[in-house]
């Protein structure tokens, strides 16, 4: 993680005082390349292991993959490693479907579940 990104993240955390309830780690299906697959180590190194308890992996561009391709993607070792650190909290959204917004409602429900699971606590960084 470069210093500029780390600085921006720390500023965001400061602005969320006393601390965020949930982190959304956004992954674009089209750009989930090898360098981005090392995100687990980068997050752990910069924020500690505790942050994963408050993290939901949000996958965008779901519409770009067939069901079979999606199943292969979520079976990928690096993706499984990432979501397992986050208690298997992940959600995919279709970035193009403006008519059917149920994936947004489902995302908000998953965020609520993470907050409930953490007993309404926020992450202190």
From TrEMBL:
Protein name (Swiss-Prot/TrEMBL): AIG1-type G domain-containing protein
Domain AIG1-type G: 2-121
MF terms (GO), sorted A to Z: GTP binding
Coiled coil: none
SUPFAM superfamilies found in the cross-reference section: P-loop containing nucleoside triphosphate hydrolases
Membership in a protein family: Belongs to the TRAFAC class TrmE-Era-EngA-EngB-Septin-like GTPase superfamily. AIG1/Toc34/Toc159-like paraseptin GTPase family. IAN subfamily.
Organism name: Cirrhinus mrigala
Record-linked Gene3D superfamilies: P-loop containing nucleotide triphosphate hydrolases
UniProt keyword GTP-binding present: yes
Source taxon at top rank: Eukaryota
InterPro entries from the UniProt entry: G_AIG1, GIMA/IAN/Toc, P-loop_NTPase
UniProt keyword annotations, A-Z: GTP-binding, Nucleotide-binding
């Amino acid at each position: 993680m470069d210093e500029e990104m780390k600085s921006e993240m720390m500023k965001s955390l400061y602005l969320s005082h006393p601390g965020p309830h949930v982190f959304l780690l956004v992954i674009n299906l089209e750009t989930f390349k090898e360098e981005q697959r090392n995100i687990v180590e980068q997050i752990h190194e910069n924020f500690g292991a505790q942050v994963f308890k408050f993290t939901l992996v949000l996958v965008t561009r779901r519409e770009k993959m067939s069901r079979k391709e999606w199943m292969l993607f979520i079976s990928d070792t690096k993706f499984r490693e990432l979501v397992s650190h986050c208690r298997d909290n992940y959600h995919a959204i279709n970035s193009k479907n403006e008519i059917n917004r149920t994936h947004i409602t489902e995302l908000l429900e998953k965020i609520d579940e993470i907050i409930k699971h953490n007993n309404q606590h926020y992450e202190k960084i």
